[in-house]
Design goal:
With 478 residues, the protein is an alpha+beta fold. It has eleven helices and 20 strands. The chain has two domains: 214 residues, Rossmann fold (3-Layer(aba) Sandwich), CATH 3.40.50.620; 162 residues, no CATH class. The radius of gyration is 25 Å and the shape is globular.
């Protein structure tokens, strides 16, 4: 039996209730625990609160460590964070992609720079307050294989944020609260009278705080006024790419699959039910026959090129000569923006365009031309796509032993955003990338975000897993 007193664990104590309870549980389990608080951001001018949130967080974290009865240390990793997370963010936004800084923070900071610092202080493991579970089992070659399972709380599963971790990083990681649900975490914090018991969950960019994103990005990206173009339904009737996608998808449907769907059938992800294993609407034999070129085209979004011609007319009693745009059945210029790089696919807030019954959503950002294309309503054709591609250089397998070979096809469950319910999909590995073909169209597939794939796991007494438990196998940048 392992003597936990001989195992030294560094808890990344943030000042929040989750990491606080994680520290408490580790201490109760008899580990040799110490707390390490990391500062990753200095500039308070970019946060909405306008103050140094990290100072308050450090104060609370120090009080928690004192209450739990563990040593407290501080490390400044702001330089590493700026280079490896923030600079990457700016670079991605400048290219018109939408990065996920929380995923990068875990890969580059918490389980790299922070881990190295913890090990210098003697730690055997680093623990965090993530809602996920880690399992270890022996592979065929006798080596240990580390698995990440979804957290026990279906409303707080945070495995998505760890989708870029490696086996080496996982071997040194612990997730003490993965088996319990958020209300119980709060209850444990109150019972132990922890100073963070009623502290609200952090929001915004990891270790930066809640920010006004355009203001934050304007530190390096210059505002530049451009057009907001609304795209009408008529554009798709004659668009060759949209016709190609719908025709190709229809050609690989199973005979009994019914009518092809090109638009997502749910409005709110918060209200959508998690999917369970169902038969794929596509004939996998026909999917396997698709060429690399066809898959590549299938994964590409519709590109917009709506030209607006001007005409002159006379207005008022004095017949003053004016210029206006001619009516175009495919679209209309409906407003102005401060820079296409400040917007992301699926965004509806911040457009400031009125006169519509339903909300407008960003469906495309053309960075070179500085144009934002928008569509009205959740069912707009430009919001939904059925296929995405991950470049070979961006494919990451947590389970290296399950890596797919070119030509292989598998069925997995996919998430393209943190809180999105898992979606059924077919993964198709080719030499030119990994293709994800969804059973149902997905809303707001966003370049730069992470697509993460999961597989159902059998429930067991050992893992206390529920029937809905899933293991995260890998991820890739869309």
């Amino acid at each position: 039996m392992t003597d936990n007193r001989k195992i030294k664990v560094c808890i990344g104590l943030s000042g929040g209730v989750d990491s606080s309870v994680a520290a408490l549980l580790l201490k109760r389990q008899g580990y040799d625990v110490f707390a390490l608080f990391m500062q990753n951001w200095h500039d308070a001018s970019t946060t909405l609160h306008g103050d140094c949130e990290w100072e308050e967080d450090r104060f609370v974290a120090e009080m928690v460590a004192r209450k739990v009865g563990i040593p407290f240390y501080f490390v400044d990793l702001s330089e590493e964070y700026r280079k490896r997370v923030v600079d990457y963010m700016f670079d991605e936004y400048e290219k018109g992609r939408t990065p996920n800084p929380d995923v990068l923070c875990n890969r580059e900071i918490k389980f790299d720079a922070f881990l190295k610092c913890a090990k210098k202080l003697g730690a055997d493991y680093v623990a965090t307050g993530h809602y996920c579970r880690k399992e270890t089992h022996e592979g065929p070659d006798g080596k240990q294989i580390y698995r990440i399972l979804a957290g026990a709380d279906p409303n707080k599963d945070q495995s998505y944020f760890l989708c870029q971790l490696t086996q080496e990083q996982l071997s040194q990681a612990m997730f003490p609260i993965g088996d319990i649900e958020k209300p119980q975490v709060r209850e444990l914090a109150h019972e132990a009278d922890l100073p963070s018991a009623d502290k609200k969950d952090s929001q915004g960019i990891c270790f930066v705080g809640k920010v006004d994103l355009p203001t934050f990005l304007q530190q390096k990206l210059k505002p530049c006024e451009g057009d907001i173009v609304e795209v009408y339904d008529a554009y798709y009737a004659e668009n060759p790419h949209y016709k190609f996608v719908s025709g190709t998808l229809a050609s690989i449907l199973r005979d009994d699959a019914g009518q092809l769907k090109m638009i997502t059938d749910y409005i709110s992800e918060d209200k959508a039910s998690p999917v369970h294993e169902e038969s794929c609407p596509f004939d996998l034999a026909k999917v396997a026959e698709l060429s690399d070129e066809t898959l590549m085209r299938l994964s590409e979004p519709v590109k917009y090129d709506i030209r607006f011609e001007t005409e002159t007319y006379r207005s008022g009693r004095k017949h003053i000569k004016k210029t206006r745009y001619k009516e175009n059945p495919c679209g209309k210029i409906v407003g102005k923006h401060d820079g296409a790089q400040f917007y992301t696919i699926g965004q509806r807030k911040g457009l400031n365009v009125g006169g519509h019954k339903d909300s407008l959503f960003v469906i495309e950002t053309d960075i070179p031309s500085n144009i934002i294309y928008v569509g009205e309503g959740h069912t707009h054709k430009g919001l939904s796509r059925s296929c995405l591609r991950v470049d070979p250089s961006e494919i990451h397998w947590i389970r290296e032993d399950l890596r797919m070979a070119p030509g292989e096809i598998r069925r997995y469950r996919i998430r393209i955003r943190y809180r999105q319910p898992l979606q059924n999909a077919t993964l198709i590995m080719r030499e030119n990338g990994l293709y994800i073909l969804f059973d149902s169209p997905q809303r707001g597939i966003t370049p730069g975000q992470f697509a993460v794939w999961y597989a159902p796991v059998e429930p067991s007494l050992e893992t206390r897993a529920k029937d809905t438990s899933v293991e995260m196998l890998g991820s890739g940048v869309i």
